[in-house]
Structure formats: C-alpha cells, structure tokens
TrEMBL record, chain A:
<protein>
    <submittedName>
        <fullName>Na(+)/H(+) antiporter subunit</fullName>
    </submittedName>
</protein>
<keyword id="KW-1133">Transmembrane helix</keyword>
<feature type="transmembrane region" description="Helical">
    <location>
        <begin position="305"/>
        <end position="323"/>
    </location>
</feature>
<feature type="transmembrane region" description="Helical">
    <location>
        <begin position="206"/>
        <end position="232"/>
    </location>
</feature>
<feature type="transmembrane region" description="Helical">
    <location>
        <begin position="160"/>
        <end position="186"/>
    </location>
</feature>
<feature type="transmembrane region" description="Helical">
    <location>
        <begin position="108"/>
        <end position="125"/>
    </location>
</feature>
<feature type="transmembrane region" description="Helical">
    <location>
        <begin position="34"/>
        <end position="55"/>
    </location>
</feature>
<feature type="transmembrane region" description="Helical">
    <location>
        <begin position="451"/>
        <end position="474"/>
    </location>
</feature>
<keyword id="KW-1003">Cell membrane</keyword>
Automatic annotation (TrEMBL), chain B:
<feature type="transmembrane region" description="Helical">
    <location>
        <begin position="67"/>
        <end position="91"/>
    </location>
</feature>
<dbReference type="GO" id="GO:0005886">
    <property type="term" value="C:plasma membrane"/>
</dbReference>
<dbReference type="Pfam" id="PF00420">
    <property type="entry name" value="Oxidored_q2"/>
</dbReference>
<keyword id="KW-1133">Transmembrane helix</keyword>
<protein>
    <submittedName>
        <fullName>Putative K(+)/H(+) antiporter subunit</fullName>
    </submittedName>
</protein>
<feature type="transmembrane region" description="Helical">
    <location>
        <begin position="28"/>
        <end position="47"/>
    </location>
</feature>
<dbReference type="InterPro" id="IPR050601">
    <property type="entry name" value="CPA3_antiporter_subunitC"/>
</dbReference>
<feature type="region of interest" description="Disordered">
    <location>
        <begin position="99"/>
        <end position="120"/>
    </location>
</feature>
<keyword id="KW-1003">Cell membrane</keyword>
Amino acid sequence: MTQHLAILPIIIPLFAGILQLLPPLSGSVERQRVFSVLLAALLIIAIGVLGWHVMHQGVQIYALGDWQPPFGIVLVADQLALLMLMLTAVLGLCAILFACGGDDKQGAYFYPLMQFQLMGINGAFLTGDLFNLFVFFEVLLIASYALLVHGGGKQRTSAAVHYVILNLVGSALFLFALASLYGTLGTLNIAHMSLRVGELAAGERAIAQAGGLLLLIVFGLKAALLPLHFWLPKTYASASAPVAALFAIMTKVGIYAIFRVYTVIFGDGAGELANMAQGWIWPLALLTLVLGAVGVLASPNLRQLVANLVIVSVGTLMVTFALRSEEATAAGLYYMIHSTLVGGALFLIADMIGQQRGKAFDWFVMARKLKQPTLLGILFFVAAMAVAGLPPLSGFIGKVLVLQAAHETAEMLWAWPVILVTGLVTIVALSRAGTTLFWRYSGDKTDAEPLSVYQVASVIILLLTIPMLVIFAAPVTDFTQQAASQLHNYNELMQVLLPGGQD
Amino acid sequence: MEGLFAFCVGMLTFCGIYLVLRARTFTVVLGLTFLSYAVNLFLFSSGRLRFEGAPILGTAEAYTDPLPQALVLTAIVIGFAMIAFIVILAMRARADLGNDYVDGRSPRSSREKPSAKEKS
C-alpha cells in the first residue's frame, strides 16, 4: 500500500472532483461543502503520511503502470515537491473553507473545479518528466480559466480573455521548447536529460539552448517574471477571493519549475550550458522587485495592491534563485512558504473588507464605516506586518535568510538595497491602505452583514501559520535546507531514478 | 522533405503569430489554431522524419521514434480542448462586453475621449 502513496495527492482531488459532479452531491451545496472540506483535510493527511515516508525512507518514486524510467512516466516525491504539496493543500483547504461563506453560490461547479485545480497543481509538483509537467500545467490552467470567470461579470470576462490567450500562447511555446529539447536530448525525463545535456555536440547545443531559454519564457510567464507579469494584477484582482487565494500558489508553480529545470537539467553539471539562465534571471528578478514595488504604490484598490505584492515576492524568490547556492535556495523556500500563505490570506482579507464597505468595495476612497473594524483591523495588521517583513513575524525571518544568503557575494551590492527599499515601500503602501480603509469613513451607519464564520476561520487558520513559522523556524529551515541540498545534488537521486544504468 | 516540412511549420507559425497579434478575438482564436497546428507538426518532427517507418517493432523494415507520436496525440487532445474553451470564452466576451475586441473596447474609442457611457 505504501508504494502507492506518491500518487494519492493526484488521485484524491481527481476523485473528489468527479464525485461532486454526480447526483448525490451535485444537487446540494451543503453536502458539497462538507465533502469538499473533508476531502481537502484528507489530502493534507495523505501528504503528511507521504512526507513521513519521504523523511524516513528517502525519495519516493512512483512508476505509473510500472513502466520503468526513463521511458515510463514517473512521479518523484522528494522534499521540495513535498513542501510545495503541503503548501498547496493548506492553501486549498483555507480557500475551500472561505468559499463556504457564500462565494460558492455565485455559479455552478465551484467545488469540482477547485478540486481539479488542486489536482493539476499537485501533479505539476510531483511529475518527473517535462512532458507531464506540460500536461499538468494544462490541467491546472483549464481549471483556473473556468474558476476565473466563475460568477461572471464584465471585468472578469475581459480579464479572462487576456489570461487565456496569454496562457495558450505560453502552452504553444512550451511545446516548441519540449520538441527542440527532445530532438536534441532524446528524452524528456528530467533526471535523464540532466545526464545527456553535458554530452551534446556543438551543433545540437545551440538548439537545446534555444529550447531551454524558450522554457524560461514559459515559466517566466507563469511565474509573472518581468516583463511577462502585466497580466497578473488585473487577473488576480478580478477573480473571486477564494480563487485569487488559490492562485497565490500558481505563480509559485512557475518558480518551482524554474528551480527544478535550471538547477537539475541546466545546473552546474550541464557542461557548456551550465547556468545559462542565470544571466537573464538576475537583472529581471531585480527589475521585477522594483516594478512590483512601484505597482504596490500605484494600486487603486486593495486587491490590486496584494496582486502586486505577489509580484514582489516573485522578484525576491528569483533573486534567491539567481544567487545559485544551496543556502540561497533554502532561504528562498522558507520565503516561499511564508509569501504564499500570507498572500493568500491577504486576498481573503481584502474581500472581507470589501464586503462591509458597500459599493466602494476595497477601493481606496472614503466609504461607509466597517461593521467589524476591530476584527478586520487585527487580521489586516498582522498580515500586513508579515508581508512587509517586519519583526517578529515570519516575513522578517524570511527576508533575513534571503539577505544572509546574499551576504558577501558580489550580488549583495544590488540585492540588499533593492530588497530593503522594496520592503520600505511595501510598508508605506500598506499603511496608507490601512489608514484609508479603516479610518476614513463617512457616517456611522452601516447595514453590512456580519462576516461569515467560515470566512473568519479560514483567514485565522492561514494567519496562524505566521507564528507557527516563527516558533518552528528551526525545523522548517532544516527542512528547506535538506530540500535545497537535494535539489542541488541531484546526482544522488539519479541512482534511484535510473536504476537500469545510464543510457 | 525536411526543407518543405520546415517551411510549412515556419509559415504556420508566422501566420499564427501575426493573427494572434490582431485586436479582435476571432482572428486571435484563428491564430492560436494555426499556432497549435505548427506546434503539433514541429513536435512530430522532433523524432526525425522518416519515410515508411513504423513505430511498432516487428512490423516494418525501418523504425521511427514512437514517442513523438504519443506526445503529439496528447498535445492534439489538449489543444482541441483549449481551442474549444477559448471559442466559447470569446463568444461570452462578445456578449458581455458588447464587442469582439480583445481589450473589450475598440482601439478608436479609447484614443478619443471615452464618454461616460463607455467608461461604465
């Protein structure tokens, strides 16, 4: 039984989604809610058990249909994948819980789509070859297209048109890149590719490099790396709150793919092609940070502000990638946990604030008084402090780790000022947002509904992870350290992955 | 054969990109279709082109790489689904926004001063 654990994170949401389309569940929202929350909790437990096995018995490999790698399809559950799976599951549970507060009634099939989205994300994290990465990208994308327009409305439709067209072009580029890599390397298994890439002939090397850099465009588009980030603020700001919260992990899928592909395949062992993406990513990461900060300052409403904060976190993560050391990767992974959860929480808080301000929603204008200013104020304050990186919250630890990783490298000269100044800009923007939303109101009358228990509970669960990340910082950083070293020393994994020999 | 094949893929890609850069959803959808044709052909050729080669052992003298064919099959299926989705989305956008421009408003009206009605 335990050898099948690695596929559970894909199977559970798949069946949960399918079952919810069938009569006993499809008829009633109440039953769907209970079922969805239970299944999301079950997913967390399954990933926990899988994690226990990975920690004690090493990386879990699952060969689908028992076709052996490199030609069969494999799922690889190493620590990095595990970390991302857990993050997705927690965020997914909170998003589903939040949706129970009423967002699920805006349109049909909310919960099945949510489960299919989870399935696609989990699959993308688990897969061991690039073509299945593409397939799972498409699974998560088509679910996200439908979720984005869920509820309807002019703004959502027009944002969705841009988002879908961009991603379809991205998928086409992805396939072009895969074809040129397959044509030169003769394999799509990530481990196998990393072995072959060093032995390329000079003529084929150019094609493989073109393919590799095309992949960077695709992943950059998913990760919202400059200059491919312009779709993000509008898309995320127009999605309904639980969907936007779940989308907080989607940029991380792109970042995860960049970490995987450019550390394992085009990493230090790639011969002539070693670290070919670094020269591109380093300046783009800094520019992403700067433009994200400008966007944060310029946002007219809270949801766009949070979307721009997502871009800032992408920039920070890419800086840790561009530093190219185990330490930096580990710091990046810690920051990734923090930024995903807090980003998700902020999208939810923005929606909760918006619900109580009537027509003004979350725009930074004078509006009605909030019904529950104390509760919302505390939630917003904690999340804002964390995301801006103020002590003693998790954002502070994450940023210190990142800065430490950049310490005494040549890149420090650029990384330190940019990261610190964007932190300051974030604080300024968030305090301005907070004062406008909470203190500038007209009249004392409010007829807003009090917040639903589900919504408050889901945000509190997400925010509880902040002190947890601080209290358990030592074990968490230990774990990210191990995950980073596994990523950088992929050769040790090779024996497990390609037992039949090389070639 | 390689030259002709490369020319076809290049031409399809060229047309696809040109059409995707247009401002109306119908041409964009057409462009995406062209792009996906180009992609499928290119993916097919990644296992090297060969006349009368069978992808199954024991059925012919010459063999061809079966993997690209499997990849193309998957890519075609996914491509169809995505094109179908974007067609429906484009129709919905046409209904919701009142025109078929990708941006939701015609380029001419946005250059002029937007009137109060269009703003809403």
